[in-house]
Write a structure and sequence with these properties.
It contains four helices and nine strands; from the N terminus they run αβαβαβββαββββ. By secondary structure, the chain is α/β, with parallel strands linked by helices. The chain has a single domain (about 5-175), classed as Rossmann fold. Bound molecules: inosinic acid (IMP) and magnesium ion.
Amino acid sequence: MPDEEANQLEILLTREQIYQRVAELGEKISKDYSGIEELIVVAVLRGSVYFAVDLSRRLSIPFSLDFIGISSYGATSYPLGIVRITKDLDINIVQKHVLLVEDIVDTGLTLNYLIKNLKTRNPKSLRVCSFLDLPGRRIVEVPVDYRGFEIPDLFVVGYGLDFQERYRNLEVVAALKKNRSGT
Ligand code: IMP
Ligand code: MG
């Protein structure tokens, strides 16, 4: 990465911290779901893919992996919290245990929409696992059953999280100080 870009990034979570926490989450989730027939792990495209893959490798229970693609119009656009499904699930989740895996819960608007949408399909259970939680910016209350890290009110990138599609492949999580406004 060129130097002028590195200057704008401040590391919040190291590779080791992330690795350790993901392992802990995998263990906890496996314990909580022990004995169930099958868990459907639903990763939200695209940000949560890196987390979902690593987390799934730490699960010792039987699971299927599926993806749901969304595009949100963001917290500043009107109407608030409108989310469009760009790729639906391939698996039928009726009467299945579902774990929704997100990269970050910020305003909560995206997750709120997804939970409502998935609940209409009558899963046996629905829980949420988010890699990051930014509770300071919540607009709607949403249940987060498993969280990797709580972070302060910053714009973060890496480990799947992007700024204009960049930085997803960083192995750390960093706060991004943007030169220009507008995310
Ligand atoms: P929401 O505000 O909780 O609806 O967050 C919606 C989505 O915005 C998240 O799933 C992320 O894809 C993205 N997002 C929110 N905060 C950040 C951030 O700090 N960095 C990168 N993406 C973010
Ligand atoms: Mg997202």
